[in-house]
């Protein structure tokens, strides 16, 4: 009897000590921030791969299983995942991570969205009425997300509330310092070197953060493929402005950007779609923005 009681106590103690919060995020960048906040108190998995356009994710049964076991779901929001996430949540049968549940977090509630549209006109392309959803390109937004996630974790796991809040505050401070240091490099450049061309209109938070000027986009409207007349117009405008850098996320088609880079001439920079599985959020931002700044700073 004594051995049975002792064994039961050990099992109870072990499960209590080693129980971890299970976090699922929709994007790789949100997963990187979540790892900074939860540290060794939880496990984090992302649904979308870092090199994947999050607009278009296949709702695989394996993702449903992930969500079924999740304690917290962190979504990007602003309709970025609208084509696939609602079905996954419904099939997961996990009320706590459904919208309105204790374990659901729309990370976009932490930030001030840019490009909010009071009226949606689909003739203008693939736009998001609540605002541009690509805010995780901006470390200042990531800092706000970290703090909100820390508060959510504190609610879910109050025993470690102080740890989560401290981790979140430290991550937010690091992200903001990174944002300041990279912004200073742009401010040191002459105005004519602070210009880029983008493929898709997804860099608005980078422009706002770094103070860069986007001269044109290769897509005539968001989600609409480039056409010859528009490409010719972008080429003319870019030459007149003296643009030397074209920027796009790695998951968009590259052929048009590569052609424009040859004609200008200019350097094509492929931004990471998100943090790699073993990469910190700060390292992911540096990896992409350092490449942009290297070409802007070149003689």
Automatic annotation (TrEMBL):
Q: Which InterPro entries match?
A: AdhesinB, Bact_metal-bind_prot9, Lipoprotein_PsaA-like, ZnuA-like
The domain of life is: Bacteria
| Keyword field | Signal, Transport
GO MF terms on file?
A: metal ion binding
Question: Which GO biological process annotations does it have?
Answer: cell adhesion; metal ion transport
- The residues forming the signal peptide are 1-19
Q: What family is this protein classified in?
A: Belongs to the bacterial solute-binding protein 9 family.
PANTHER family in the record: ADHESION PROTEIN, HIGH-AFFINITY ZINC UPTAKE SYSTEM PROTEIN ZNUA-RELATED
What protein name applies here? Zinc ABC transporter substrate-binding protein
Native species: Microvenator marinus
């Amino acid at each position: 009897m004594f051995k049975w009681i002792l064994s039961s106590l050990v099992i109870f103690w072990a499960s209590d000590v080693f129980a971890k919060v299970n976090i699922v995020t929709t994007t790789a960048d949100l997963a990187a921030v979540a790892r900074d906040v939860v540290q060794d108190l939880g496990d984090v998995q992302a649904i979308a791969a870092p090199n994947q356009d999050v607009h278009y994710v296949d709702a695989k049964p394996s993702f449903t299983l992930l969500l079924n076991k999740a304690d917290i779901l962190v979504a990007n929001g602003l309709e970025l995942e609208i084509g696939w996430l609602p079905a996954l949540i419904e099939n997961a049968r996990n009320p706590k991570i459904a919208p309105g549940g204790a374990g659901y977090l729309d990370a976009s509630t932490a930030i001030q969205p840019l490009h909010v549209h009071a009226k949606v006109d689909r003739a203008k392309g693939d736009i998001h009425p609540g605002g541009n959803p690509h805010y995780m390109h901006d470390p200042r937004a990531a800092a706000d997300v970290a703090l909100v996630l820390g508060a959510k974790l504190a609610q879910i796991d109050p025993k470690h509330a102080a740890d989560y809040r401290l981790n979140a505050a430290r991550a937010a401070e690091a992200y903001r310092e990174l944002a300041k240091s990279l912004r200073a490099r742009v401010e040191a450049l002459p105005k004519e070197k602070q210009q880029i061309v983008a493929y898709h209109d997804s860099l608005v938070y980078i422009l706002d953060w770094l103070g860069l000027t986007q001269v044109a986009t290769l897509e005539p409207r968001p989600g609409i493929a480039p056409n010859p007349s528009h490409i010719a117009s972008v080429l003319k405008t870019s030459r007149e402005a003296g643009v030397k850098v074209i920027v796009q996320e790695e998951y968009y088609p590259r052929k048009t950007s590569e052609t424009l880079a040859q004609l200008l001439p200019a350097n094509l920079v492929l931004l990471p779609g998100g943090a790699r599985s073993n990469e910190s959020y700060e390292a992911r931002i540096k990896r992409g923005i350092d490449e942009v700044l290297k070409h802007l700073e070149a003689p």
